[in-house]
């Protein structure tokens, strides 16, 4: 985003379209749908025997609190850096934080839209939680296991995806992430979420995805070509846009299936790194964009080539993110709660030795 031609908070003076633009479009069409699909699967595994009340309380702690705190602690850094010439300091910006809605104004939730949408989905499904749980473990779940293990049966999910966009895009044409006027995108993501809830939680279905992973990868390739070349296949510009939009939906779904299939084949094992990384994912998501924006503000003004700038930006932002997480968020219950993590049971602190012996010994020596 710093080096391509799209508008963003911080831009390098020298910008690139071409291959970088195509890569960004490709990623844009499947990365967030995949996250919602994985979140749906994660929701099923996290439910356990929770009651609807326990579930919504857990979602409030894990999603809504980090969302609200992030609006005041993380997002203002991004908007301030973008509009830094208008304010003497960050504190001066805070006095104008509620002056209008971004981009014309200052108030926004930026990358935290994903957290807000997940929380809304949690509110949406809570009244039906027992029904959904029974459906997944009962007759409907067994029907899913039989039906969606057939060759190409998973692609029928594209039907509700297409219908949702055909019906709603005429009213909500642009994806805004603003919640109140983004119902076409919201419905799209809800379908991916529910697909993860019902499909990715079945060992039989994920095994089928593993077997057909190369078929799904071929679908990814074909959909990508059509998405980028669709406009040139028709004389009518509108017809080309429609074909490209349909291909983008096929791309998003086939990417989700292919990713699940390859993960089942190559990543179906546990490790100490997985345990550490799994806990760090959420704080990383919350931190990554403000840290990249702040770091980029300094990097783009350095007197060096673009390739070196990219390397410096990647290395410095990643180092800053992991350092803040490891030393300021992970060890303390207050910051863990703020960033949506589970509290540490101080009585079991020594269990960290199970997955990071050296760090465990260091922490134990300081306790």
For this entry, give a set of tags.
367 residues, mainly alpha, 2 domains, 16 helices, 0% strand
Structure description:
The chain has 367 residues and is mainly α. It folds into 2 domains: 18-266, no CATH class; 272-366, no CATH class. It is 67% helix and 0% strand. The chain has helices spanning 18-47, 52-73, 75-82, 90-94, 113-125, 129-137, 139-147, 158-168, 183-198, 203-211, 213-229, 237-266, 272-299, 306-329, 333-338, 357-366. It starts with 17 loop residues before the first helix and ends with a helix.
Radius of gyration: 22 Å
Quaternary organisation of the protein chains: single chain
Which percent bin holds the helix content? 55-70%
C-alpha termini separation:
42 Å
Beta-strand residue percentage:
under 5%
Mean pLDDT: 93
Main β sheet profile: none
Main structural class: mainly alpha
Helix segment tally: 16
Q: Unreliable runs, pLDDT <50, ≥5 residues?
A: 349-355
Number of domains: 2
Q: What would you call the shape?
A: globular
The overall strand count is 0
Element string (H = helix, E = strand) = HHHHHHHHHHHHHHHH
